[in-house]
Amino acid sequence: MRFLFLAFGACTDAPPATSSPPAPPPPPACGDPSLRDETSWDEIEIPGEGTDDRRFFGSGVVVADFDGDGDLDIVAPGPTSARYLRDDGGRFTEDPTALPELDYSHAAGGATADFDGDGDFDLVITRWGGGDYLLVNDGSGRFTDEHLLPWVDRHSQSATWGDFNLDGNLDLAIAGHGEAEAIDGELVVTHPGDPDGLYFGDGKGGFVDESDRLARGLHSGYTYVIGVSDLDHDGLPDFVFTNDYPQWRPGMAGLQRDGQWVLAPRGAGFDDYDPGHSAGQDVVARSRGTRE
Ligand SMILES: [Ca+2]
Ligand SMILES: [Ca+2]
Ligand SMILES: [Ca+2]
Ligand SMILES: [Ca+2]
Questions:
Q1: Using an 8 Å Cβ cutoff, are 44 and 3 in contact?
Q2: How confident is the model at residue 8 (pLDDT cuts 50, 70, 90)?
Q3: Which of 162, 161, 191 is nearest to 177 (CA)?
């Protein structure tokens, strides 16, 4: 598993501000050739993350200022571990004690948010089987597992934070994938994938399993990522499901209706998620759709 990180701040295509009052210095322009110089990047290779299991692959890393020192740190879930990399003056150092001692096998992805409102970034790590973790930050980039999520043995890929029911508390959606079968050298699925998870924050630091609010047709799509957007512009958050396998719908939209999420009908403009296509003006969904 390799990562490339730019040692400078974000760039922009916007022209520098010239009007008064004086504006802060603009970020470097994207045309700055130094930003395209490979020597401007740190390359980090995390050893031991290879796997021969073709059924498994991760869904990403989590980046945030976990220790509150003003720079971005990294949590890298992987097939055999989850690793915490702290930015120490522009160089990343692994801190093996930042994350609690847990079984991180088949850690697939994660997401961060300050779900408890204490000013630091907390962390969800999803696992492709064996249960997901919600880790609470103590403010210094050290985490504990307080078992705030219901334990579900689901082949999870990724997690998404948001206030889905607009009650002021952060909620969590977890994408459920599933196991395929190897038949004649090809991976195929002959049964529905694992149900996605939907957990509403209770305002007291806990979560309530509200997965049944997702209509049956939205579950079980071998989902990589659940995106959130108000697709139909009614003020209520909707979901986009980016799925695996052509045997199932590669993409689905769930529209919020009376506290439930219902499958948007085909032809309504929300199901055009074939590989390379976009869905609506707010969300771009992409599903590979086939296995290599
Ligand atoms: Ca930091
Ligand atoms: Ca927090
Ligand atoms: Ca909420
Ligand atoms: Ca909506």
A1: yes
A2: very low
A3: 191
Q: Give the pair of three-digit tokens for residue 52.
A: 């021969």
Ligand at shortest distance from the CA of 86: 1
Q: Are 122 and 112 in contact (CB under 8 A)?
A: yes
**What separation in Å is there between the alpha carbon of 244 and the centre of ligand 4?**
24
pLDDT surpassing 70 at residue 196: yes
φ, ψ at 246 (rounded to 5°): -75, -15
Q: How many CB atoms lie within 10 A of CB 259?
A: 10
What is the distance between the alpha carbons of residues 88 and 291, in angstroms, rounded to a whole number? Answer: 39
Residues paired with residue 24 on neighbouring β-strands, in sequence order: none
CA 95 to ligand 2 centroid distance, Å: 19
In which residue are the tokens 């694992």 written?
194
Q: Which of 111, 93, 87, 78 lies closest to 2, judged by CA?
A: 78
Cα 131 to chain centroid distance, Å, stands at 16
Q: Confidence class of residue 24 from pLDDT cuts 50, 70 and 90?
A: low
CA of 119 relative to ligand 2 center, distance in Å: 5
Segment 240-265, tens digit of pLDDT: 998 888 767 777 899 999 999 999 98
C-alpha of residue 165 to centroid of ligand 3, in Å: 5
pTM above 0.85, yes or no: no
* Angle in degrees, CA 7, 143, 65, rounded to 5: 25
Tell me which residue of 235, 246, 241 sits closest to 214, measured CA to CA.
241
Residue in the structure block whose two tokens are 């609506």: 280
